[in-house]
Write a structure and sequence with these properties.
By secondary structure, this protein is α+β, with helices and mostly antiparallel strands. Helix content is about 35%, strand content about 15%. The strands form 4 sheets. It has a 6-stranded antiparallel β-sheet, with helices on both faces. Helix 2 (about 40-55) packs antiparallel against helix 11 (about 365-380).
């Protein structure tokens, strides 16, 4: 399928829609509220409308603020049983992992173990070389802000079949694949989203700390914040999501195939993690309120540049996206898409929303409904 149109669409989506999201079919809607002061019923109506418009199995929105938390469900989490998303559902959060990884890198900067504007060659000697980039010219900041010009390895993988998803590749091989391609641009002359950047950021963490990147994320972020429903899978030993979760689907030749237990994240720093919407809300609020980084490093993280990507109505910070939402709030997020799950979010220091769904929409649908997707998130974020 490497040369057919459907394969090209799949690869295009993997390359460009890491922050895009869609929502599901309209059966089985419901709201559960932790306290009475919660997002209003119109959020449910907007979610249901979006669900029916896009036509995917199911979705769950989790909103959090000062003194309240709400969960809003729409559609189904399992096409076989018709069950909705379970309460506090775990999903594969894909590229949202990058925000955790960037936070760890910036903690190392705060500890003076890494310099943000130092060339990556200093920390990974001999690794970044070839047509795709020169480690003497590319800085740590470039990796986190997608200003390196290093090609995205996902653009050169055939992931259009289930068999391809079952063939894991190590980070080193994927980094080489990206660097074997011509550079997209000279460092810092443009922006271009690249998963290869964050494989290198993960390699940097491992080189500096001497332990796997997932261990550092767990030790520095997951445990201190008490994110009990968030984890870095023990790949290749752990493909099954641990806690209650929806089934994740992908369309192959017009048929929805359950690919929940196939993990193309392969335990890597660009998209390995599993979490709940509530935990993601907690993480982003903690990050933005200064619980994880000193003021200097948080300010660096939030120094954003235009993304130049028509699919992202946002600017690139360091492992974060920035946009101004419908009610004038400056919100920060990342978002991710992989293996039957797409997760969109938006947060401020005092409130956050995470929206999860269990099907990858095609890129055309993503473009057509991006505004509607943001509208659902904004309705919840602006409600209180």
């Amino acid at each position: 399928m490497a040369g057919d149109e459907s394969g090209e669409l799949v690869r295009y989506f993997w390359r460009t829609a890491a922050a895009a999201v869609a929502i599901a079919t309209s059966a089985g809607t419901g709201v559960s509220v932790a306290q009475t002061d919660s997002p209003p019923a119109r959020v449910q109506a907007e979610l249901d409308l979006l669900v029916g418009s896009i036509g995917v199995p199911g979705a769950q929105l989790v909103a959090r603020g000062d003194g309240w938390q709400a969960q809003i469900d729409s559609g189904v989490g399992d096409l076989v049983t018709g069950a909705p998303f379970p309460d506090n559902a775990q999903v594969r959060i894909a590229s949202n992992t990058k925000s955790f990884v960037a936070t760890v890198v910036l903690q190392l900067v705060a500890e003076r173990r890494v310099e943000l504007d130092a060339p990556i060659e200093r920390y990974l000697p001999g690794v970044v070389r070839g047509p795709g980039g020169d480690g003497h010219q590319i800085t740590v900041r470039d990796l986190l802000q997608h200003t390196s010009g290093i090609p995205d390895y996902l653009s050169y993988l055939d992931l259009a079949t289930i068999a391809a998803l079952r063939r894991p590749l190590p980070a080193a091989a994927l980094i080489r694949l990206g660097l074997e391609q011509p550079a997209v641009f000279a460092p810092r002359t443009s922006t271009g989203y690249s998963n290869t950047d964050f494989l290198l950021a993960g390699a940097l963490i491992e080189r500096i700390t001497g332990v796997p990147v997932g261990v550092e994320v767990t030790r520095r972020i997951i445990v201190p914040l008490g994110l009990r429903d968030t984890y870095w899978p023990l790949f290749p030993l752990e493909n099954v999501i641990r806690a209650p979760h929806p089934r994740g689907y992908h369309a192959y030749d017009g048929v929805l195939v359950d690919i929940t237990d196939i993990d193309p994240g392969w335990g890597l720093a660009d998209g390995a993690m599993v979490a709940t919407g509530a935990d993601l809300d907690r993480f982003f609020m903690a990050l933005l309120s200064g619980e994880l980084l000193p003021p200097e490093q948080l300010a660096e993280m939030q120094r954003a540049v235009p993304s130049g990507d028509p699919l992202r109505d946002a600017d690139f910070g360091l492992g974060l996206f920035r946009r101004v939402n419908a009610c004038g709030l400056e919100v920060w997020s990342h978002g991710g898409a992989m293996n039957g799950f797409v997760v969109l979010n938006a947060a401020t220091p005092s409130r956050a929303v995470t929206l999860s769904m269990n099907l990858l929409p095609d890129p055309i649908t993503t473009v057509l409904y991006q505004g509607a997707m943001n509208s659902v998130v904004d309705a919840a974020l602006c409600a209180n």
